[in-house]
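ok here's G-protein coupled receptors family 1 profile domain-containing protein, seq below lol
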Amino acid sequence: RPLFSICSMYLETNHCRITQQNHSSNDTALDPSEKLHAVLIILYMINLAGGTLGVIMMSQQLFQRRSQSVMTITITSLLVLHSFMLLSIPFRLSYYILGVWKFGRFACRLASAIIYLHMYATFAFYMAIVIARLLRLEFRKCYTMAWVGAVWLLGALVIAPVLLSYYGTAKTYHSSKCFQFHRELQEAHMVIANYCLAGILVVVCAVLTGIQLTVIYRVAVKYWPDINSHVEFRAQAKSFFFILVTLICFMPHHVFRVYYIQNYHLDKDHKLLLYNEVFLALTTMCCLDMLCFIAGIAH
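and the structure came out like this:
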């Protein structure tokens, strides 16, 4: 009987331990943070693979055509922007997979800043294409090269140095962590800058969406039912593609960004921070636009 009692106690203890381990493993499997990290890894892997393929294929198309039109110059600029952004994605994947940042603080700030520079520069080129087609503006090559060069010089010589000088430097962060610059929002000028950027993007996109849909409707009514055979309709439809990419990729991040700024101080477990990172990762999906261009050219 003593032996039987000892065996019973041993079995009960092991049963409790196994039950606790199962509960802990289930809790770990259902941890929202782990799910969000998995979503980030999947998004960045898709963007890296699809974006790289799109850049390579579009580069081949442009090289074969040897065109120097306004559209070609703009697409080339988008290719360069996407390429810089794609170079930063492996560093992000390394961090989300390993859970540790191993490349130093400057590399962290650079990788974080690149994604914002890419987003706003891409948005600027998108809106320039839409406005040019809405107003039916025809630029000479020299004028197009001039304003595209001005955009690049402004970004490379002014915006990028200022951003790298101040972004992520107001507070002290752990060297093994990255992309956690939420404490910068304690600074009033950072809050104002975020609100202004979000407001400008949302308003510009909303206004151009309304105008573009109105133009497409009028052109569709004018040329119905053979609308696809008219160059004007196809051109306006292609312009709407840029607005659609902005609505899908950029708009959710900026809408959530406003909510995040207002509630980040309540984010004790950093869940809102991870959701913000997911919406930021969604902005990088705009690099898949080159695959859509290839499909359009093939069609």
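fwiw The chain has nine helices and no strands. kinda neat tbh
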